Give the backbone structure.
Amino acid sequence: MALRVAVAGASGYAGGEVLRLLLSHPEVEIGALTGGSNAGAVFGTLQPHLLPLADRVLEPTTPEVLAGHDIVFLGLPHGQSAAVAEALGDDVLVVDCGADFRLKDPADWERFYGSAHAGTWPYGLPELPGHRAALKGTKRIAVPGCYPTAVSLALFPAYAARLVETEAVVVAASGTSGAGKAVKPHLLGSEVMGSMSPYGVGGGHRHTPEMSQNLAPVAGGPVTISFTPTLAPMPRGILATCSAKARPGTTAERLRAAYQEAFAGEPFVRLLPEGQWPQTSSVYGSNAALVQVVLDEHAGRVIAISAIDNLVKGTAGGAVQSMNIALGLPEELGLPLNGVAP
Ligand SMILES: NC(=O)C1=CN([C@@H]2O[C@H](COP(=O)(O)OP(=O)(O)OC[C@H]3O[C@@H](n4cnc5c(N)ncnc54)[C@H](OP(=O)(O)O)[C@@H]3O)[C@@H](O)[C@H]2O)C=CC1
Ligand SMILES: CC(=O)N[C@@H](CCC(=O)OP(=O)(O)O)C(=O)O
């Protein structure tokens, strides 16, 4: 019998992308679709690309509406997931696309999100060492932020093999869907088109502690990240350019071998052939992450670059991948590997 899934925040970008993927998933059926200000609207007016759901109506996000489902995805603004999750039974699999349960250190949460810490759930980045095992059988999943997904995949093999120093510099470009659907003046088409702009400069972006949290256990000690996000004039995609000083003894051969070993058998992460570079267009609509790494011998630095679709591997695809693991289903079920090109 199909597992019944509800999506809270179904009118948003994250919720909409979860639904796009789940509509092709053989083991689930779509139950309640809930939201906030748009509750009562016909779903086809909110997410017109999701044709099979066009005649549905968006319901309010209440415990009553969400009751009676096997799985509930949350695509709600930060700070709203805990109250909703509390009202759901321990037997329900809750997959939170928001940030509320990602961070382990309450001080990090309070500093970057400015509210009380709700707690910590198993973290949905299966490729990180040890994480797949922690996701098996869990009833609660914290889906990673989109930038931490791209950056952690690019850097963790270098840390696992102890080939880089523990300070990394990351500059990443994101498509505008990363900021959600709510209207923001700096995201108006006339502001974004034909321009790239930095934001959250100087260590202020809330994804910085999440990246350090992911890399520290792999590195065997604290990792400091200098992170600069930039907004790119495209709807989807993240290109993360990460670099760290090479440790003595790091060679191009050792580097490549470390990445080959780290990604061996991973269904969604591909180390590109030497000389080929990740580009966001290759992963548009796909759950794949493309990675390349080189040793810049002139500067003595390792450069690792990754490309993901922020809404797929960076949110909804990562969420469904982790759901599959939690349920004991094949990890790739319902997830596109091919992108859309041109
Ligand atoms: N966009 C991205 O790339 C990523 C997003 N995420 C996370 O996913 C979550 C959603 O983000 P995103 O989809 O981009 O945001 P959107 O602004 O696109 O969507 C927000 C959703 O939340 C609903 N909502 C807002 N306020 C309330 C409320 N008070 N009660 C119930 N529902 C409410 C909205 O409903 P309505 O339309 O009816 O108001 C809408 O469905 C966030 O926590 C974000 O951090 C995670 C990774 C990446
Ligand atoms: C382009 C853009 O604005 N991106 C968002 C990150 C999107 C994401 O993953 O964020 P959550 O942590 O909210 O889940 C930002 O920088 O705030």
In short: The mean pLDDT is 97. The pocket of N-acetyl-L-glutamyl 5-phosphate (ligand 2) is lined by residues 98-99, 145-146, 174, 178-179, 229, 231 (CB under 6 Å).
